[in-house]
Specification:
It comes from Musa balbisiana (Banana). Pfam families: Usp. Residues 122-213 form the UspA domain. This is UspA domain-containing protein. The protein has 220 residues and is of the alpha/beta class. It folds into 2 domains: 19-66 and 132-212, Rossmann fold, CATH 3.40.50.620; 77-120, no CATH class. The protein is built from 8 helices and 5 strands. It has a 5-stranded parallel β-sheet with strand order 3-2-1-4-5, sandwiched between helices. The longest helix is centred in the middle third of the chain and has 28 residues, at 122-149. The two termini are 21 Å apart.
Length: 220
Amino acid sequence: MEESQTPVKAEGGGEDKKMKVLVAVEESEGSLYALSWALDNLFTSACDVPDKTESLGRLVLIHAQQQPLQHFMHPVGPCMTDPHHRSFPVLFSTRESHVYREKQTMTKNCMSCLVAAVYATSSVIDSVRRAQEQNSRNLLERATQVCRSKLVEAEMVIVDGDPKEMICQFAEQMQADLLVVGSRGLSKMRRAILGSVSDYCAHHATCPVLIVKPPKGNHP
């Protein structure tokens, strides 16, 4: 993790080397605060010199969206053993599916009723995916508006997969000079269960990582 107050500038000597800054964006106020901090502290001169963002560096905003069914491919209920029941993915987490499978051994009849309520058709799955993609676009558009308000141009990237892994992979792929992530301020229990994107990036990213914490008293 690195902290710097130095604005991003092109290096002299021959061809200018533009610093490539990757900012992770998610649905939290802490994430947008991290973006604003990066704009104010790494691209400050862009506010004073309109249309000069390119001379300062390259800014990329990335949002990683998990596939809706990535963790929901475990069949539950009678479809596991009954060949006459068609198997569909279900919109429940892996952990809940395990719980239901345990319940099945105790109350088969009751389980059959529950199963009928959790199966999802392909149209429902497609609807979930479309809604997720639209939410991702809206989120990045909101972040882009923040950049425009400070006269900084930014590129937008949406990737599919686990946010922790995909952000690190993309940072390596684009050969980022700096990765900026926000801190959501998770409790110790939630951090242990869900994991922390910022912690993971700090340990696995191939480039320097700047973790921006929100001001005290601000709970994203």
